[in-house]
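Title: Prediction job returns without error message
Component: structure pipeline
Severity: low
Priority: P3
Assignee: unassigned

Description:
Job completed but the reporter wants confirmation the result is attached to the right record. Sequence as submitted:
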Amino acid sequence: MSTYKNLIGKDVNFLTTDPDNDAAEGQIWYNSTSNVYKNVIVNKAWSSSGSLITAIPGGGQAGAGTQTAGLAFGGNNGPILAVTQEYNGTGFTLGGNLNTARYQLAGAGTQTAALAFGGEPPPSGVDLSESYNGTSWTEGNNLNTARRTLGGSGTQTAAMAVGGTTGTVSTASEKYDGTSWTSTPSLNQAKRNTQNVGPSAAALNFGGYTTPPQVVRTETESWDGSSWTAVNAMNVGRYGAGATGTQTSAIAFGGFNPGNPTNPVAVNESWDGTSWTNTSISLAQARGYGAGFGTNTAAVLAGGGPTPANKPSATEEYSETANVITGAAWASGGNIGTARRALWGAGTQTAGLIFGGYIGAPVSADTEEYNGTSWSEQNNLNTAGYHLAGTGTQTAGIAFARGTPTPNNGPLTEEYDGTSWSEQNDMGTARYATAGFGIQTAAACVGGSPVSIGTPNMQRTEEYDGSSWSDGGTYPTPIYSLGGCGTQSAGLGCGGFSPPAGLGGRVTLTGEYDGSSWTTGGSLVQGVDGGFASGSQTDAIFFCGYASGPLNQSQKYDGTSWVSSASLANARNSLGGSSTTGALALAAGGGTPNTNSTEEFTGETSSLNVKTLTQS
């Protein structure tokens, strides 16, 4: 009789606690604490990830690369876009623009060696081909057949371009050798908005549609380097889907099927080299025309449509892993008692504090505490204010600087003890729209708008020691309406608005403070003012704010660079929040219009997929 070790090559271990890493995959062990046998199995699921920086609700962008080093480029957002967005497995940053803006194009390759070809406009499509080196795009030799809605796959030096439309749905097939395109034998079935995986020596094509009349295609064809051969068809016809993998192991996800009750399609299909199988794994957000990239076990779908309100930039990751991955996300919390904007906040997600703000004509002195579920009214500030700042905890908070009706731009300081506010020594400079960070006995205030916009005081940092204020280092540029978090000796300033005397306009600038001087850190993915920051100098989240309008986007900082993160349900600016952590943040209130909405952020988590064995 064979043993488990003979069959699998591993013993059945006797443990008091479960293992915590994926080396346990395939093991069976006896947990003596819970008196059960357990093992680890592979988990297959989609999870949310950092959103696109430039929302593309119309879709039509192309993708390339891997789950930890990917690209999304082109697309249609009202204007046709040349934007390139680089993905690092957590979120996106901006790369170099395409030379020619277009959508319904195809892509191939990696993040540092990508290829973009075809696309629209004009209605018949373009023949343009460009290569990317990780920084910029360079025009190369054109396709032989100008077209749009084509399928593409492979590498920068061994790519395939198939199908599409020139005004008439096409069977055209071409391969690329890194220099030029060569026409190859045609597809057996003409199709547009089709999917392709694999290089120029061994590709697979599937899905798409023909018109007129519109017929959604299920045909699958295999390319052996010299000809296309019909193989087993898909179970669910779809077009505009995402697809990753190889000729012998691929997945298709999302897309559209007008004849299917679930239009767009959310369910996956997997290809094993012979046939397609419907899986029980679905996208959280059914959509098509997004940018798909990665592998058949580690894929990404970014953007696409149709999209729910405020979520045109959603990104999801597919993983086959021994871990259960829960993507970073914002979730609704309890509403604040008084809807307002231009407030500030402190504390944590489960012990939060907000104060001040602008309700309408009246300036607010309202203070509210959050217990992780609901807000409760507390004793008011002694002096109402808007665009004020502060920091600290729910039982040891501090509020300083503020816009007040008369006189404007107060230098006032107040401390909160968990019950009431008490006035303290004033700041050296009267101002508002500043940023604050630190704790009640070691706080800092930076930037802000004084009576005279553009004066040197807009770069002034002041430090509080629990009793009085003193001068700190000078910020790199005049700034107001910025975000701030961290400690007095390791602080972070991000975004904001710099007047003409400084950089001018909304900035991507990040300032890092060491307790005496500021240095410049990594740039934000986009310039934002009126956002809120939470966390530390090496693990921060900056969310919402104002660009061309109120934003629902968030950005994460690791001490070196910013990437996009999960989007909120509600766009807003000049909001309050918690100031303590980057992994468990809180967004409360804001405008415009004024809102009483609260949202809670939880960062991505990963845990081993441990299962208890039973006899049933």
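Comment from assignee: result matches the submitted record. The longest strand covers residues 363-370.
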